[in-house]
Specification:
Length: about 270
């Protein structure tokens, strides 16, 4: 069955084997296509369309509007603002490219390259997104701050290796667990009064990680399509819900980091 001039769509059993990752999404799979064919899929209905647009539309907004919401002239540590901007944009770009070209006629080789790109984007938001948090939490402790930044970067390098070599969504989600624990240690420092930062940022960061975790759990649980296979083939399936939660999670990251960067600019560390 074709939609708005699109090609004949496939069912789960006849789709390429490397794309059979959700047995509860029964129809709407795109056939193998050239690069131009993948681009044309932006204009007809298939089961990846929602996945493309739930990150594609926010991506455009983040690329053009996010810089306007960062008070560059009032931030003293400029590289943290640049890192934060990349953390918000890169994962969404990787996801759009992955979902847009995943049915490329190059087959599994192209697919796994795109999956690696997508996982690198996820790692970037986990890595680059946390650097301003760590910096501001240890704003008055330069040596521990530098050590923590290096340690988190090394841990993130290990996480991306685990993520790109994982063979299931559960293992991919587990690959980022150590990064999450590292961040939560710094959240604890703030909560206990042992770390520094803007008073409102901790709440934003906790909501951020909560939404990201919820999205990951929904994605691996295949809810709601698990309950009614075939009904959510095109809209409101678990992966699309996860995308929406990730976008909202990034917004909370943005609000928390901007508050922190303005705070660290005006904060004077106590004199020993």
């Amino acid at each position: 069955m074709a939609y708005l001039g699109g090609p004949r769509l496939l069912d789960w059993a006849s789709s390429p084997r490397h794309l059979q990752f959700n047995r509860f999404v029964l129809t709407g799979y795109r056939p193998a296509s050239s690069g131009s064919g993948c681009l044309r899929s932006l204009f007809y209905l298939h089961n990846e369309l929602g996945n493309i647009y739930t990150h594609g539309i926010p991506l455009l907004g983040f690329v053009f509007l996010l810089p306007l919401s960062i008070p560059w002239a009032r931030i003293s540590v400029g590289w943290l603002a640049v890192v934060h901007y990349l953390a918000c944009v890169v994962p969404q770009l990787g996801s759009v490219l992955y979902h847009l070209f995943m049915n490329h006629e190059g087959g599994p080789a192209v697919y796994h390259t795109l999956l690696t790109l997508d996982m690198c984007g996820v790692c970037m938001v986990n890595t680059l997104g946390a650097l301003p948090i760590i910096y501001c939490t240890l704003a008055c402790s330069p040596l521990p701050r530098s050590a923590a930044l290096l340690a988190y970067t090394a841990l993130s390098s290990y996480a991306i290796i685990c993520a790109v070599t994982a063979h299931s969504n559960v293992r991919r989600l587990r690959s980022f667990a150590w990064q999450a624990l590292f961040r939560f240690f710094f959240f604890y420092l703030r909560w206990a009064g042992l770390g520094t930062g803007h008073p409102s940022s901790l709440r934003s960061y906790l909501i951020m990680d909560g939404l990201a975790l919820l999205g990951g759990v929904i994605n691996i649980s295949r809810v709601p399509e698990r309950w009614q296979p075939g009904r959510f083939d095109y809209w409101f399936n678990s992966h699309q819900i996860m995308h929406v939660l990730v976008v909202v999670s990034i917004l909370y990251l943005h609000w928390g980091v901007v508050a922190d960067l303005l705070w660290v600019t005006s904060y004077a560390c106590p004199q020993d």
